[in-house]
Amino acid sequence: MLKFKKGEIPELTFKEAIKKPIPIRCVQINEPFEVETLEGTLSAKAGDWLMVGINGEMYAIDQEIFQKTYDLCE
User: Fold this and answer.
1) Looking at the predicted structure, is the pLDDT value of residue 74 above 80?
2) Which of 2, 4, 9, 52 has the smallest C-beta neighbourhood within 10 Å, fewest atoms?
3) Residue of 32, 59, 57 lying closest to 47 (CA atoms)
4) How far apart are CA 41 and CA 15, in angstroms?
């Protein structure tokens, strides 16, 4: 079985890919909250974002990560 460790990029021939721009629904929550995700219950802090994916799955994203990876549509 292959094992990949955090912080150690394996010596493989990687291809480059760009993530498809898939619109999702999101809302910033201004108080601590919990959300049931596909992986279990996730706790989030005030200012984090509640996201709803393309199949209705819900998850939370930290405010700082949201700002680095998402642009709000107008």
Assistant:
1) no
2) 2
3) 32
4) 34
